[in-house]
Specification:
The complex is a heterodimer of chains A (369) and B (396). Chain A is built from 16 helices and 17 strands. Chain A is of the alpha/beta class and 369 residues long. A six-stranded mixed beta sheet of chain A has the order 6-7-8-3-9-10, with helices on both faces. In chain A, helix 3 runs parallel beside helix 6. In chain B, 77% of the residues lie in helices and 3% in strands. In chain B, helix 8 runs parallel beside helix 12 and helix 13 runs antiparallel to helix 14. Classes of the chains: A alpha/beta (369), B mainly alpha (396).
Chain lengths: 369, 396
C-alpha cells in the first residue's frame, strides 16, 4: 500500500536518510525503530510530506504522493505524535473534529463520530467531550490524540512515539488498547518508536534503522531469531529469548486444571489433590479465590483454613496475555504454574513453567529447520 | 504576647508599610493655608485641620484598620482591612472638603486651602493596604472589585457633589474648566490614536519577526534603540525633518503635518508604543509548543489555517498584554506632548511648573494618574475576556 523507493534525504552535507526502500502492506503495522538520530522520524515525516525527500519517491496505492497536494495527502492520513499536540484552546470534541471539519463533514456526522471515537478509546463521551486538554491525564491525552488521528477514518495512520510520554503502566495499557482497536479497524500503520518491546508487541513487521540506513525489515520473530548483522544482534539484546516469548499468546498453552469449590470438604480436596501438589479454589461462580497446598491438607478442619487466598489479579493472567507476561508472573509470585482467568476472574485453566520451556524448545527447533 | 507580635509582623507584611505611612501621616500637616495661589503658605496639623471630632474619626479608623490585622481568618482580615482603608479614604477627603470651607470663611477671596503631606501620605498608605487586602480575597472576585472600586466611586460622588469645591485644585479647575475638558479629550485622543497605530504597525511587524530570521534582528534593533531615546529628545528630533517636509510639500501642511503640534506627537508616541507590542507579539507566537503546530500541519491544515486557528488564538493574551503596557505607558508619555504644542493634560503640568503653582500641576497630574489606572484596569479585563478558555490565565 505504502511503497518507499530509494528514498534519500540530505541536509547540506549531512545524510539523514539514505536510499531506503520498503513496503507497508494494507492493514499492516510497521514500526520504524533505531537509536535516536537514525532517521526514523524523518522517514515518517516524508510519508506525509512534512519533509520532502531529496531523491526517491513514495507511492500510495501506486500513486506518487509528490503529485498530491500536501494538505489533502495529510488529511487522508491520521497523525499522532509523542507530545500529543492537542490544541489547548479547544475542547476534546473540537480537537477530534479538526480533520472532519477540514474535509467538510456535516455537523451531525461529526458529532456522532466524536462519540463513537471516544467510546473506541475507552473515554466516556458525556464526561470528556467538553473537557480541555489541560484537564486530561497523560494517558487520557494520548487516547484523545489517537481518537483525533482516527477522526476522518483515514486508511493510513502515522504515529511518532504515540505512547512515549506516559508512565510504563499506562503505556502497556495503551498498547493493549491499540492492538484491540487495530484488530477491529485494520488500518495501515507506520509507527516510530525507540522502545524495542513496544515494537515487538505491536508490529507485524519491524524496520530497524541505523544512521540513515535501513538495516533489516522483517517480522519481529525473524528479527529476534535471525538478526541480520552485529548491529541488529546487539540492538535486540541478550534477552531476545525472553522478547520472543512476548510474541506468543498463551491461548495455545492453556490447559484445563483441577479446581475445587470453596464449599467442598477436606476429604473431597484430598481426592482431587492426589494427582497434584496444589489445586485452585473457586467460588460458586467459578471465580478464582486462591489455592491450597496438598501437604497442608491433613488435619485441616476446612478448606477455608488452609486457603492461600490472593486477589486473582496478583497470581493469574488473563486469556489475552503473552507467554512473557505469564513467565514474569510466575517468577514474581514464585509459582511453577499460574491460573488463567477471563477478564472478570473466572478460572479458565492454567499455564505451567514446563509449557513455556516446551514453547522455547519449539522455537529453537524452528530456527534450525 | 511575643508570638502575637510575630504573627502580626509576618502576615501580610505589605500592609504593615501601609500602617506605618498612616501613622506618620498623622504627625504631618494635613491642610495648607495659602493667602494666594503662588505663595507656599503654612501648614495646619490634623487637629487644626479637622478639629477634634475629625481628628478622632481619622485616628479611630486607623486603629480599626490596624486591629483588623489581628483577625485570624485570612478572608475576614482582607475584608475588614479593605473596608476600613476605604473608610479612611472617604473620611479624609470628605473632612478635607468640609474643613476647607470652614477655614476659608471670612478670609480673603484669593486665599486657598490645599492638601498637605499628611493627606497625600494617607492616600498612599490606604492604597497599599487595599492592594494587600485584595490578595487576601483571591477567589472572591466580586469582593475584590468592591474593595478596589468603593473608594474611587465614593471619590467621584464626593467630587461631583461639589463637596471638594473649596480645595485649591478645584479652584484652579473652575478657572480652567473649559480648557480642562478640551485638554482631557485631547490627551485621550493622543494616546488612543498612537496606541491604535502602534497596534496596526506593531502586530504585523511582530509576526514578521517570527517568520523571517532576516527581519527579526533589524526590527528589534530599531525598536530597542528608539526606546532608549528620552521622550523629550524624540519630540525635539522630529521637529526639524517634519518642518522641512511640510515646507517642501504644501499638501502635507494641509493634512496637518507640521514640525510642531499633533502630528509629531502622534509619531513619537506611536514609536514608543511599538516595542511592547512587537515584543509581546513575538514572544506570544514564539513560546507556542511546537508539537501543537506540528500536529496542526500534520493533520492537513494549511499554514494559514494553523496561523489563524491555532497560533493567533493562543498568542492573543500575550499580544493584548503588550497593548496594555503600551496604553498605560502612552497615557504617561502623552503628557510630554504638551511641550511641542500638541496639548493634552500635560498643558496644566507645564503651565503649573512655569507659574510655580503646585495646584495647577496637580490639576494635570491627578487626572493622568486616574486615567492610567482606569486604562490599566480596562485592559486587564479585556485580556481576561480574550483569553481562550482552555489556556491557563496569566495572573499577575
Amino acid at each position: 500500500m505504502i511503497h518507499l523507493q530509494q528514498l534519500t534525504k540530505r541536509y547540506g552535507d549531512k545524510l539523514a536518510v539514505e536510499n531506503i526502500s520498503f513496503e507497508v502492506d494494507p492493514g499492516e503495522v510497521c514500526t520504524l525503530i533505531g537509536p535516536s538520530g537514525c532517521g526514523k522520524t524523518t522517514t515518517l515525516r516524508m510519508i506525509n510530506r512534512l519533509i520532502e525527500p531529496t531523491s526517491g519517491k513514495i507511492t500510495i496505492n501506486s500513486q506518487d504522493i509528490s503529485g498530491i497536494r500536501p494538505e489533502k495527502l495529510r488529511q487522508s492520513m491520521g497523525y499522532a505524535i509523542q507530545n500529543v499536540g492537542l490544541f489547548p484552546h479547544m475542547t476534546v470534541a473540537a480537537n477530534i473534529a479538526v480533520v472532519p471539519e477540514l474535509v467538510n463533514w456535516d455537523k451531525e456526522r461529526i458529532n456522532s463520530r466524536i462519540d463513537e471515537l471516544l467510546q473506541l478509546v475507552n473515554l466516556d463521551p458525556t464526561q470528556y467531550r467538553s473537557k480541555y486538554p489541560r484537564h486530561l491525564s497523560g494517558g487520557e491525552g494520548q487516547r484523545v490524540g489517537v481518537a483525533r488521528a482516527l477522526a476522518a477514518d483515514p486508511p493510513i495512520l502515522l504515529m511518532d512515539e504515540p505512547f512515549g510520554a506516559v508512565d510504563p503502566l499506562t503505556r502497556e495499557k495503551l498498547q493493549t488498547e491499540f492492538l484491540r482497536i487495530q484488530r477491529e479497524l485494520r488500518k495501515t500503520v507506520v509507527l516510530v518508536t525507540h522502545d524495542l518491546d513496544e515494537a515487538i508487541r505491536l508490529a507485524d513487521r519491524i524496520a530497524i534503522m541505523e544512521r540513515g540506513h535501513l538495516i533489516q525489515h522483517d517480522t519481529p520473530e525473524n528479527i529476534l531469531s535471525k538478526p541480520i548483522n552485529r548491529f541488529v544482534h546487539d540492538f535486540v539484546g541478550t534477552d531476545r529469548a525472553l522478547k520472543r516469548l512476548s510474541r506468543i499468546s498463551i491461548t495455545r498453552y492453556v490447559r484445563p486444571s483441577p479446581s475445587i469449590n470453596i464449599t467442598a470438604t477436606v476429604d473431597e480436596a484430598v481426592d482431587v489433590c492426589n494427582q497434584c501438589q496444589w489445586v485452585w479454589v473457586v467460588d460458586a461462580n467459578q471465580k478464582l479465590l486462591g489455592w491450597i497446598d496438598r501437604k497442608n491438607l491433613p488435619g485441616a478442619s476446612s478448606i477455608n483454613n488452609v486457603l492461600v487466598s490472593n486477589l486473582w489479579e496478583e497470581i493469574a493472567v488473563t486469556n489475552d496475555a503473552t507467554l512473557r507476561e505469564a513467565l514474569s508472573r510466575m517468577l514474581g509470585q514464585g509459582l511453577k504454574s499460574i491460573p488463567v482467568v477471563t477478564e472478570n476472574g473466572t478460572l479458565r485453566g492454567e499455564v505451567s513453567l514446563e509449557d513455556i520451556e516446551a514453547a522455547t524448545a519449539e522455537l529453537e527447533t524452528n530456527d534450525h529447520a | 504576647m511575643l508570638s502575637a507580635l510575630q504573627r502580626f509582623v509576618t502576615r501580610d507584611s505589605v500592609a504593615i508599610s501601609g500602617y506605618v505611612l498612616g501613622i506618620i501621616s498623622l504627625l504631618l500637616g494635613w491642610l495648607t493655608f495659602k493667602p494666594n495661589r503662588i505663595v507656599s503658605g503654612y501648614s495646619l496639623d490634623l487637629w487644626q485641620s479637622y478639629e477634634a471630632t475629625g481628628g478622632f474619626i481619622i485616628i479611630g479608623l486607623w486603629l480599626l484598620c490596624i486591629l483588623s490585622h489581628f483577625v485570624k481568618d485570612k478572608h475576614y482580615r482582607g475584608l475588614l482591612s479593605g473596608l476600613s482603608a476605604n473608610l479612611i479614604l472617604i473620611a479624609t477627603l470628605l473632612l478635607a472638603g468640609f474643613n476647607a470651607g470652614r477655614l476659608l470663611e471670612g478670609e480673603a477671596i484669593a486665599s486657598r486651602i490645599s492638601l498637605g503631606a499628611g493627606i497625600w501620605l494617607t492616600l498612599a498608605g490606604t492604597y497599599i493596604i487595599l492592594f494587600a487586602s485584595r490578595r487576601n480575597l483571591t477567589g472572591y472576585r466580586l469582593r475584590q472589585y468592591i474593595i478596589s472600586l468603593l473608594g474611587i466611586i465614593a471619590f467621584l460622588i464626593i467630587l461631583s457633589a461639589g463637596w471638594l469645591d473649596d480645595l485649591s485644585v478645584l479652584r484652579e479647575f473652575m478657572v480652567y474648566e473649559a480648557r480642562f475638558s478640551q485638554e482631557f479629550w485631547q490627551h485621550i485622543t493622543l494616546f488612543v490614536v498612537s496606541v491604535s497605530l502602534g497596534v496596526f504597525i506593531g502586530i504585523p511587524l511582530g509576526i514578521w519577526a517570527t517568520r523571517s530570521r532576516r527581519a527579526e534582528k533589524p526590527i528589534f534593533f530599531i525598536t530597542n534603540i528608539t526606546q532608549t531615546i528620552p521622550s523629550l529628545a524624540l519630540f525635539g528630533l522630529l521637529i526639524a525633518p517634519l518642518s522641512v517636509l511640510s515646507f517642501r510639500f504644501p499638501f502635507l501642511r494641509e493634512l496637518g503635518i507640521r514640525g510642531v503640534g499633533f502630528t509629531p506627537a502622534i509619531i513619537a508616541l506611536t514609536i514608543y508604543s511599538l516595542l511592547p507590542i512587537i515584543q509581546n507579539t513575538y514572544v506570544g507566537l514564539r513560546q507556542l509548543d511546537t508539537s501543537v503546530l506540528d500536529a496542526g500541519l500534520g493533520m492537513g491544515m494549511s499554514r494559514f489555517q494553523v496561523f489563524r486557528k491555532i497560533e493567533i488564538p493562543l498568542a492573543t493574551p500575550l499580544i493584548l498584554e503588550g497593548v496594555r503596557i503600551a496604553s498605560v505607558q502612552g497615557v504617561g508619555l502623552a503628557t510630554v506632548a504638551a511641550l511641542i504644542g500638541a496639548g493634552g493634560l500635560g498643558f496644566f503640568v507645564f503651565q503649573g511648573l512655569g507659574q510655580a503653582t503646585s495646584d495647577l500641576i496637580l490639576l494635570g497630574a491627578i487626572p493622568i494618574i486616574i486615567l492610567a489606572l482606569v486604562v490599566d484596569a480596562a485592559m486587564r479585563i479585556t485580556v481576561k475576556i480574550a483569553t481562550p478558555k482552555g489556556i491557563i490565565r496569566i495572573e499577575k
